[in-house]
Structure formats: C-alpha cells, structure tokens
Amino acid sequence: MGGCPRSTLYRCERRCSCTVMTRFANLKQQNDWEESWEVWWTKHTKFIMEREEKSRGPYSEEEAKLKEDFVSKVLPCYLRPLESGGRSIDPALCHTDLWPGNVKYRLDNESPLVFDASPLWAHSELELGLFRNPRYPLGKALFKEYWKKVPISEPEEDFDSRNIMYMIRHQIKPLTAIHSFSFPGNMKMLVDRVNAEEKERKVAQDGKKSFEVKIESVTDDLKVLAT
Fold first, then answer.
1. In whole angstroms, what is the distance from residue 75 CA to residue 72 CA?
2. How far apart are CA 167 and CA 208, in angstroms?
3. pLDDT (tens digit, 9 = 90+) per residue, 135-182?
C-alpha cells in the first residue's frame, strides 16, 4: 500500500489509479491516472479483457458481442450515475485483493496483518467485489459491517449490479481457469438486466406519451363543446 505516499495523498484522493506499477497476483496492472472513475474502470475492463483474450484465444462471435454490450451498455449504466446528478466519488485507497489468504494474524493472535495488496485509488465498493465470488462466502455479514464505516454509494438501488460488475474483475484472470470460464455468465446477467431496465423505461415513457395524447384529445373535445 506504500505506492501512494503521503506527499501524493491529495492528488490520489482526487483521481483514480496508483502512483506506481502494481500487480494483481502476477499480472501487471494498467495504472493511468483519470479524473473520472467511469473512464478509468472502462479502460481497465477493456485492458483485462484484451489480456484474457490474448491468453485464451479469440472470442467467438457471440462472446465478442457480449463483451461489446457489457462495455457499451452495462458500464455506463451503472458507473455514470455515480458521478452525475450532483453525485461524485472520493477515491479510497483499496487493497483490491482482500481474500482470506491475504489476511493473517501476527504472533500475538491479536493484530491482523494484511498483505499482497494490488493497491488502487478507486471507488470504495470495488473492495467488496471479491466477496460476491462464490469462492469466498463472506458476503452479507461483511457487507453490513463495511457499510457501517463506508455507506453504500448513490444510487443505492444499483449496488447489486455494481457489486457483480466489480466481481467480474476477479474472474477475468488468465492464470485461474476456473474463474475465467465463469465471467461470461455474469456479464450476460448484467447485459440482460440493463436491457430489461431499458425496456421498462420505454414502456413507461410510451405510456406517459399515450396518456398525454389522450388528455390533449379530451381537452380539445371540451373546447369544441364549449363553443
């Protein structure tokens, strides 16, 4: 975690990334600074997808379409609201790989020791993505304790989707075959969710327009009767 020294603390808190090259397990991370979390996470997602494809081989046509929809639909749907409508993100210094194997007790059995970090100034909820993974069933109890210190970001109703989105980062890892084969299903879940939400909004908008047309028609009829 020493990659962001005190001398750069203010700069780190206003931007997303880290000041030094870091690794996620044995994988080098792309650490370009960005003012926008949406911009940084989109670049990072593309980076890890491209690396996974180079390792595994070309995506099928269906997989390529899923990847495109995930980047173009899911990411802006659930990231952009964090930094719009008067909302903003204050990046937090995250460990980003806080699985149980990276947390041990010192010899006194009292003081916990956290190590093997892949530090990053990021949206605080990124830290919780790992615990959505079925491999680490620490979920709800840990979330509730975390939220006592760091409340859920607004819009709160998008948390579940953001949590799945951040979990996918831990599954797109070429060195871990069992993870790499599970992320397309989670990506599809979010793409389907976004498409369903868009359909609901369209139905609601069409219904509102239809109602407004009917009101306008009734108003016109009343005007005719009045004359």
1. 7
2. 37
3. 776 668 888 888 999 999 999 999 999 999 999 988 886 554 444 557
Full-model pTM: 0.78
3-class SS of residue 109: coil
- CA distances in angstroms from 102 to 63, 114, 117, 169, 172, listed in the order given: 33, 6, 8, 17, 19
Burial class (CB in 10 A: 0-12, 13-18, 19+), 97: buried
Give 92's strand partners: 122
The verdict on whether omega for the bond into residue 155 sits within 30 degrees of 0, i.e. cis, is: yes
Antiparallel, parallel or unpaired: β 27-28 and 23-24: antiparallel
- In whole angstroms, how far apart are CA 158 and each of 16, 48, 162? 21, 23, 6
